[in-house]
Amino acid sequence: MTEQTWKAHFHEAKSSIGRTKEGMTAIITVFALTVMKIKSPKVRFGTVSVENFSTGDTNSPSLSMRLVTQFAIKNTNFGHFKYDNSTVTILYGGSPVGEAFIPRGRAKARQTRRFPVTVDIGPVQLSGNPNLANDINSGILTLTSQARLSGKVELMKVIKKKKSGNMRCTLNINLGTRVMESQCN
């Protein structure tokens, strides 16, 4: 083999390897964007228990309690979801009455991350609401919880996409049994 033919053969082999790498990159990218479509994580409460529950009378309505629950972040993606610090807010009549801190973290690929969350609702926050006496007399107290977790989903350490998980739940507390039913959107 002459030097001229050897150089031509080497150049042809080198460009063939380059085309193979480009082709593999294109196939992986198409696969990542179609089959492994990046979705927003699902954020939910688990079972909610009511502790330290007390109410005032109808002349001076007040309510205080502690809500204890499991907070769940369900990541259905093929890559992990890294999220920033956030908060869960509990509302009564549209006004915030309690808040819990959610520290930044990571939900592994195709797994659900669960951790405990405690929210204290004190009498000071609820005493100004004119509907509180009616709700206490009816035996059902309706609260709303909301949270937004913002972060990034990372696929194959190459593709990073910003996504956020939102939660908005209606929490109905039966004041007689202290059992809570939640309905999330």
Number of domains: 2
Q: Major sheet: size, sense and barrel closure?
A: 7 strands, antiparallel
What value does the Rg take, in angstroms? 27 Å
The dominant shape is: rod-shaped
Beta-strand percentage range: over 45%
Task: State the helical fraction.
Answer: 10-25%
**CA(first)-CA(last) distance:** 72 Å
Secondary-structure-based class equals alpha+beta
Mean pLDDT: 85
Unreliable segments of 5+ consecutive residues: none
CATH top level class name of the largest domain: Mainly Beta
> In sequence order, what are the helices and strands, one letter per element?
HEEEEEEEHHEEE
The CATH architecture of the largest domain can be named as: Sandwich
Individual helix count = 3
CATH topology of the largest domain: Immunoglobulin-like
What is the number of E strands?
10
Pfam family, one: LEA_2
Protein name: Late embryogenesis abundant protein LEA-2 subgroup domain-containing protein
Domain Late embryogenesis abundant protein LEA-2 subgroup: 71-170
